[in-house]
Amino acid sequence: DYIRDKPYQLYQGRNKVKIADLGNIKRGNKVEDTYFALSSVIAQLVEAKIVPVIIGGGQDLTYANYCAYENLKQTINMVVIDSCFDIGVAGQDLDSKSYLSQIILHQPNFLFNYSNIGYQTYFVDENALELMKKLFFDVYRLGYVNKNIEEVEPIVRNADMLSFDISALRQSDAPGNKNSSPNGFYGEEACQITRYAGLSDKLTSIGFYEVNPLCDNNQQTTHLVAQMIWYFIDGYYSRYKDYPAGDTSQYTKYTVSIQDDKHEIIFHKSNKSDKWWMNVPYPTNKKIKYERHHLVPCSYSDYQMACKDDIPDRWWKAYRKLS
């Protein structure tokens, strides 16, 4: 409720928006009841092509958000903005510090890819980093993202769901979180990331978690989250709807041969938005399961890398998972 009041204080911008405030989901007698209620609502909304914006609560609600896609039998990509991975330790109950391991181990599993944006090395165990590499997941250090904020766009463009832990923001910008630290994203960067999320044709749900009004300073954090939501909505109503499927006349196709013609990478560039995708081959017997994942969003820098006879990291990781 602390956050939901704030968007009403902002002008709606140049687009005529259609938004419904669906109220609060009451806590169940057990936390599992809360997860079930939230995942059921999200599943119904996503199935109806309505994008839910989840506000408040702990980041363990990301697990409930994920379970909504299990109900829809949809293999998904999940992007998390966080200063750590929230894997927890063996045997730990599901909470905001262990939800990711529960998602990874969940059966049946509908997670195709996990991407972390903004992890801080001193908050991450070396074993956790090794696990990310073994699973071919994408993790991006805060320092890298600070210097290459535009590279966040293709990462987020590949997401079906996005979870934003407010502790990923620097304490001076968002003090309303007990786990906030001196380093993190600036408010402007957070707004840019959420606008990228809104622009993504693929993204169907987003959540903002770990806001604690008791730790806040003059409602600074709740104001910032409201502005992040505003940018998400602005991005949503600015979508190009140019995912390269069906009619390819609006795209420029580039074929790059690398490593003495041993490999061939096909790139597609949208003539509407100048966005790039890579075509990653996959076994024909897995066509139904992986049809949504063989076109990997990328940037112009990936095309430049391929032209220099290097296989882009995005392409390689997707290829390993698809194989």
Structure description:
This protein is an alpha/beta fold and 323 residues long. It folds into two domains: 7-236, Arginase, Chain A; 251-322, Vcp-like ATPase, Chain A, domain 2, CATH 3.10.330. 33% of the residues lie in helices and 17% in strands. It has helices at 31-47, 61-71, 99-105, 126-134, 142-147, 152-157, 187-199, 220-236, 287-290, 300-307, 313-322; strands at 53-55, 76-81, 111-119, 138-141, 161-165, 205-209, 251-258, 263-270, 276-279, 295-298. It has a six-stranded parallel sheet with strand order 1-6-5-2-3-4. The longest helix has 17 residues, at 31-47. It starts with 30 loop residues before the first helix and ends with a helix. The model has no long low-confidence stretch (mean pLDDT 94).
